[in-house]
Amino acid sequence: MADAKREKDRSIMAFVQDKQEDGAPKETVMMKLMRYFGLSRNEAESYYERA
């Protein structure tokens, strides 16, 4: 189970970094994180800030 969490974390971080490199606005990235990964707003913001 821990492996699945680590893989999800890596996938989310890669997604965020890719969107940041493309110049996507923070709000857009966070909305996509919530939609695609089922994250709460706080979780999405946490991933965005860590990337």
Structural class: mainly alpha
What is the count of β-strands?
A: 0
**pLDDT averaged over residues:** 96
Number of helices: 3
Helix content: over 70%
Low-confidence stretches: none
Beta-strand portion reads: under 5%
Distance between the termini: 23 Å
**What is the molecular shape?**
globular
Detailed description of the structure:
The chain is 82% helix and 0% strand. By secondary structure, the protein is mostly helical. α1 (2-21) packs antiparallel against α2 (26-37) and α2 packs across α3 (41-50). The protein is globular. It starts with a helix and ends with a helix.
Features:
mainly alpha, globular, 51 residues
What is the gist of this entry?
The chain is mainly α and 51 residues long. Helix content is 82%, strand content 0%.
Write the layout of secondary structure elements.
Elements: H1 2-21, H2 26-37, H3 41-50
Helix pairs in contact: 1-2, 2-3
